[in-house]
Batch of 3 targets.
Target 1
Amino acid sequence: MASTSDILIDGFGRIRENVHAAVDGLSEEQLTFRPEGTGNSIAWLVWHLTRVQDDHVAEVAGTKQAWLDDGWAGRFGLPFEESATGYGFAQRDVGEVVVGAEQLTGYFDAVHERTVRYLSRLHDADLDRIVDDRWDPPVTLAVRLVSVLDDDAQHVGQAAYVRGLLPD
């Protein structure tokens, strides 16, 4: 019988597969293509979903983010606060995420590795721990992890859709 940890690891593993399918083999120009000139690019979508996973999982794990700890913020060189995750960004901000496929998947893989390491240590009893009491009802670890997984799935699906729109 699979544990909750195993199921979460499988779910995040599917995100990894889909991120690579959406990004691998694309040029920087393709990664920054924006539908209708104002839509979200693959580069922004993957950067954003990775930043959210990095930020949220590091917080519940009590660890540092790969973005800061492993120097990804410096490698990307984006004109945002280092703490930015893309939440609430304006259209002009989306266009500032200009990076190559290796950078995107490198950062994603570093975050994925940290996420799996954390999830592999989880026990079912851990999932009821309150991780955010700013909400009513307070957010449990289980709810936060499923929320991150859901957000990642939506954004990687959007990235796959944009890949299908790329001009020939």
Note: Residues 141-165 form the longest helix (25 residues).
Target 2
Amino acid sequence: MFETEKEVLNWYERHSRSLTKSFVSEFPWPEIKNYSLDPAFVPVLIYMRDVESFTDMYYREVLRTPTGKDPVLRRFMERWVVEEADHAEVLNRFLREAGVAVDDKWQAKAKAAIPRSYTIRN
């Protein structure tokens, strides 16, 4: 289907994002509270939210490598990192709408929980 990385990127960029602001605003957020959420699933959603949020750190790390210097991969990653941040925000909103107490500083606290040794080594 694709012969080069550039063809893949062109295909990717021709497609609109699925998770648009319009889509998110039209989602029936108030209805979420009408459905029960298994408490055992909450940590999974929090983990998923945090991983999506941490993509920016991964992106910065990859930029320091030969892969991050490839213009085609870099362009893909520039769009990808924005999309992942949006996913984190949608997951966080879902948690709030489901009645899960979410700290307003969740992102800063999650990043602060990353071991200091990670940032020292890298």
Note: The chain has a mean pLDDT of 88.
Target 3
Amino acid sequence: MASAIYPAFKQALLNGSVDLTTAVVRAVLIDTGTYTYSASHDFYNDLSGVVGTESAALTSKTITNGVFDAADVTFSAVTGNTVEAVVLFVDTGNVATDRLICFLDAGTGLPVQPNGGDVNLVWNSSGIFSL
């Protein structure tokens, strides 16, 4: 599976119901042996295979020329299955309404086998994703 933006998120952007500059955006580490991307997935409760806990809210978010970017993220003391992907989501405080943004399975450091240490997510220098 190649990295992808969830179609329901694209729809939310187009109808103005999501603003990435003001939304609380977080990341989760994903074991693709348990989760398979589906274009029909729209909310966090569609995910399986989450490894560790969600990240802190992304900081230094920017949108420039259709490219979304943010500061790199560190997941502390991660244990569990091998991580082959990352999913970004808008945190509303309710997994039934936490909108999935994108599925990323390509990038430096993936896959990674958690060993109880930190997992550092370093975004591509050209941004996290573009529209």
Note: The chain has a mean pLDDT of 95.
